[in-house]
Amino acid sequence: MDQELNQKIDAFIAANREQLLDDIAALVAINSVETAPAEGAPFGEGARAALDKALELAGKMGLATHNCEGYIGYAELPGADPDKYLATICHVDVVPAGEGWEADPFTMRRQDGWILGRGVMDDKGPMVVTLYALKFLKEMGVQLRYPIRALAGTNEETGMKDVEYYLAHNKAPAFCFTPDAEFPVCNGEKGHFHGKLVSPVCKGKILSFTGGVANNAVPDRASALVDADIVGLKNAPNITLEPENGGVRVRGWGKSGHAASPEGTVNAIGLVVDYLLANDLCTEEERKYLEALHKLHSSTAGEGLGIATSDGPFGPLTIIGGRIYMEDGRMVQTMDSRYPTSTNGEVIAQAIRNAIGDGAALEDVDAADPFYIEADTPAILACIDTYNQVTGKNEKPFTMGGGTYARHFPYAVSFGPESHDLVLPSFGGPMHGANESAPVDALLQSIKIYILALLRLEEIDF
């Protein structure tokens, strides 16, 4: 590594540390969960406000900015080649805060070298980090071969229509990386399968059933109001019972996490389902539906639904139930599956229908195939070599179940800044969970990694 360049980067990071954290806090302060569209705000006013803030921050750094009709925006550094450009892409929308926070999720907190708040890691913190990488290149007067755009999306969590709009109106970058996953480099993502298990109109003992805040997050709490007498009901682990309006509120208390990595989570909906079944708090028609839900919640590997499978590049399929709610007298359970190359959406859908029988209907199905880019391509090597050089490690690219913007581009990967061996503090939570947290030192180190990786990418003949 060029020692003079290394020293300049270190000095830049030290000088900008406090402002960077303040900028992340300014983005976190905006509740950018998707809401109803408004004029100039296709994914709601919160997402648009976060986009405006990101572009405002970039403008203050002296970067040229462009807003693509509220769908997406970018900050840009010019380059000599007008026909090709490099890009980074982050998102400024977030999943709902949910419950279980120890403080306001939209007021960023600092504690023992960590920052906490919705979006600090997914993906507002990395968004600000990429802007500072461009800020360094601008301040150093680096003459770029390819222009570099730092894209700021607004719909990653709920559909990625933002990047679809961008690519419909702009040429794709020669190469793009998204700081929305783990280091070192993710060069493949599992396929995605989504659907809903919908009950008949039962008009039985279950008066309401609610749980979860996002389709792609394991819920840590859920509850059902049932027409029953609390007297005689048995206690159960992670279940509480409360009398309510002549009935009983059955609450489940689980452990949240991301749908892409559900290992170690406890789905609160599944806890309530099993309690209702075990205590006969349902009619026969409701029982059939709950038994279908039990098959879903019994295994995050899909064994209960008969869809379990695995392959070499990606490992096992995963599936979770994210939200449950009642609509027009029916119970609706959303599902989120990440699957390897050894199956496909049609096979998964048919297996689920076979498993649930007439207990539920499978509706609103959609699927996207896995994507994979060979690890020895020049741009991926530039990213992995930079990471290993900065950290002193000898890591290899990996695949994952998470879905990022990378799958929408012809040549792209996800590239940090999370870490697979990161141990969360007792006061901190994961992405999509309560008390979402990020280590400050890791975010700062990622600035150096991104600066050096972009400089290496500039040397490649695309």
Topology:
Layout: H1 3-28, H2 45-60, E1 64-68, E2 72-77, E3 86-91, E4 109-111, E5 114-116, H3 124-139, E6 148-153, H4 161-169, E7 175-178, E8 181-183, E9 186-189, E10 191-198, E11 206-211, E12 217-218, E13 221-226, E14 239-244, E15 247-253, E16 257-258, H5 268-278, H6 284-297, E17 310-311, E18 315-316, E19 318-327, E20 330-339, H7 345-356, E21 361-368, E22 371-372, H8 378-391, E23 398-400, E24 412-414, E25 417-419, E26 437-439, H9 440-457
Helix pairs in contact: 1-2, 1-3, 1-9, 3-9, 5-6, 8-9
Q: What can you see in these coordinates?
A:
- The protein is an alpha+beta fold.
- The protein folds into two domains: about 5-190 and about 370-455, Aminopeptidase (3-Layer(aba) Sandwich); about 190-370, 2-Layer Sandwich (Alpha-Beta Plaits).
- Helices cover about 30% and strands about 25% of the residues.
- It is built from nine helices and 26 strands.
- It has helices spanning about 5-30, 45-60, 125-140, 160-170, 270-280, 285-295, 345-355, 380-390, 440-455, and strands at about 65-70, 70-75, 85-90, 110, 115, 150-155, 175-180, 180-185, 185-190, 190-200, 205-210, 215-220, 220-225, 240-245, 245-255, 255-260, 310, 315, 320-325, 330-340, 360-370, 370, 400, 410-415, 415-420, 435-440.
- A six-stranded mixed β-sheet has the order 1-2-6-3-7-24, with helices on both faces. Strands 19-20-10-21 form a four-stranded antiparallel β-sheet, covered by helices on one side. It has a four-stranded antiparallel β-sheet with strand order 11-13-15-14.
- Helix 1 (about 5-30) packs antiparallel against helix 2 (about 45-60) and helix 1 (about 5-30) packs across helix 9 (about 440-455).
- It starts with a helix and ends in a 5-residue tail after the last helix.
- The mean pLDDT is about 95.
